[in-house]
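job 3f2a | input accepted
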Amino acid sequence: MALSLKELSKKEELFSSGHRLCAGCGAATTMRQIMLATEDPVVISTATGCVYVATATYPYTAWKCNWIHSAFENSAATISGVEAAYQSLKRQGKIDKKIKFIAIGGDGGTYDIGLQSLSGALERGHNFLYVCYNNEAYMNTGIQRSGATPLGASTTTSPAGSASYGKKVFRKDLTAIVAAHNIPYLAQTTPAHWRDLMGKVQKALAVEGPTFLNILAPCHRGWRVEMKDSMKLARLAADTCYWPLYEVENGQWKLNYTPKEKKPVTEWLKPQGRFKHLFSNPEYQKVVDRLQETVDKEWAALLKKCVVESKPPETETKTAPARDVC
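job 3f2a | predicted structure (326 res):
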């Protein structure tokens, strides 16, 4: 499917409007783009989390496809069982329809609670795509810190105050952990880079075997930003190299986006209320410096691994602004 806005506008929306996700929710935009990029019949397994709670409140659903709710920790295991049953039915000659399988979980259900389930499904080689919509905390249950929460962020379980500057450890590099499983395809992206995200969904679904997408999905409540600024924050995450856009295909690392000018990470931090204490207390400048040093170090390491795409970095925003599909 060509990724043109004209053609996309004609496509049926498999993730419908009327759900209860917040206005400006990065996860909502992500789900819409994923489903617009899906061509074949698809079965979705969604872990407990924001997306489940707000899109499938009985008797209503936003999913116009085959959809299953799984527990917090086992979205990957659930889709593994469905995919295994499908393969059995194919071998028995009882089904010949081409069907795709997608498991979905937030960072809590992926980085933390669901990591064992995900790792097992990847190791067994099931033919499915796993999508992590990463809003960097347990947003559905009260904004508790997760393994994806950045250093210095204030959450309800790592609150900033007189005794602490917020979360005291760096986030887990889940994408690298998944890469260590040597699966055929995995990638990072954001919904602000819609052409990149949808192209990666299509590529992942075309691959035989397990695939994985880690998608940064801003949460205005947990990040303490204006609803309208979700996509702006997602773009800044890429422009500061806090959240690089890259893919790993059959072991080859490829960088998909290089900012014309790498912005300081403070441009991403300052608009977010969860980091405001870092700029109101001079003692916490060291935390900001550590964040910048880590971003620089990880970016340099990524550049050594990656082949850089030849397309200019501004192509997608000039030809089709992200807001057109948000």
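job 3f2a | DSSP finds 14 helices and eleven strands in the chain.
job 3f2a | closed
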